[in-house]
Design brief:
By secondary structure, this protein is α+β, with helices and mostly antiparallel strands. It folds into two domains: about 45 residues; about 200 residues, Nucleoside Triphosphate Pyrophosphohydrolase, CATH 3.90.79. About 40% of the residues lie in helices and about 25% in strands. It contains nine helices and twelve strands. Strands 1, 5, 6, 7, 8, 9 and 10 form a seven-stranded mixed sheet that branches. A hairpin with a 6-residue loop joins strand 3 and strand 4. Helix 1 runs antiparallel to helix 2 and helix 1 runs antiparallel to helix 3. The longest helix has 19 residues.
């Protein structure tokens, strides 16, 4: 971001200077320098686009409260099919393994200093306590995401939900999955939008991870996929895009909309 500011400043200075210089050679040099800076400026804008967008939000919505919910999702694929698990809050719906990030006491203190408060849409219980599902003053959106990106004072591993949903539940064996390897795929930060459900502006954030199973772990997952489990479904990318529907067949599986983030 600092580099972007410097490039823009230099481009403006050289562009303005060209209007006050009478020497044609110098004018051509300054004009060429200004035009040449357009490439690095465009490059820096691309790299910092998300941060620039948040700066715009903090200016435009500075007097409003914005709901922010951050989560992480697991992409678990065996033989071209994606594992989805039955939702705890919506048991008729299947969704990716994963959940909302948790904040530590240190992180809670940092958020309180920003004026961030808890969200009251979902009742707080032992499973939702400490979730980063919060209301952020619009003027502090940039500060909030700077804190979130630093990873200080918040959950920074997808292991907890994997352990709770697949191991503690008995779906997978802890002997075969004493630990896991995973790749970080990407982060999706949705554009701000009005949520009728939340009755406020909302930004949703999702980190996507991909499980990298050992041969033994892949074999265990394949065995479960073949045997079937009442709390699991294995679906194709097409079924995820169609929310569980398969052309020419009864709609028997309801796939959560945010499952599309796995693709």
């Amino acid at each position: 971001m600092v580099r972007l500011v410097i490039y823009v400043f230099l481009a403006l200075i050289s562009g303005v200077a060209s209007f006050f210089i009478t020497n044609s050679t110098v004018v051509n040099m300054t004009a060429g320098f200004s035009v040449g800076l357009l490439i690095p400026v465009a490059d820096e804008v691309g790299k910092n686009w998300q941060q620039l967008r948040h700066i715009w939000y903090s200016v435009r919505h500075r007097k409003q409260s914005i709901r922010v919910s951050t989560s992480y999702l697991f992409r678990i694929v065996i033989d071209g099919k994606y594992l989805l698990i039955r939702g705890s809050r919506y048991p008729n719906q299947f969704q990716p393994v994963g959940g909302v990030h948790k904040v530590s006491p240190q992180g809670s203190a940092a958020l309180s200093a920003m004026g961030v408060v808890g969200d009251d849409l979902i009742p707080v219980d032992p499973s939702s306590d400490g979730d980063i599902r919060v209301r952020v003053p619009g003027r502090n959106i940039v500060q909030f995401f700077r804190w979130f990106d630093s990873r200080e004072g918040r959950e920074d591993s997808p292991w907890r939900e994997f352990q709770e949903e697949l191991l503690a539940s008995g779906i997978l064996s802890a002997d075969i999955f004493p630990h896991i390897m995973h790749n970080y795929v990407r982060r999706e930060v949705d554009k701000i939008r009005y949520s009728p459900w939340a009755d406020s502006l909302e930004i949703l954030v999702a980190d996507v991870y991909e499980l990298v199973p050992t041969p033994e772990q892949a074999g265990a997952l394949r065995q479960i996929a073949q045997a079937g489990h009442p709390d699991l479904v294995w679906v194709t990318p097409s079924q995820i895009q169609r929310r569980g529907a398969t052309p020419g067949q009864p709609h028997s599986v309801e796939v959560a909309a945010h499952s599309a983030r796995l693709l």
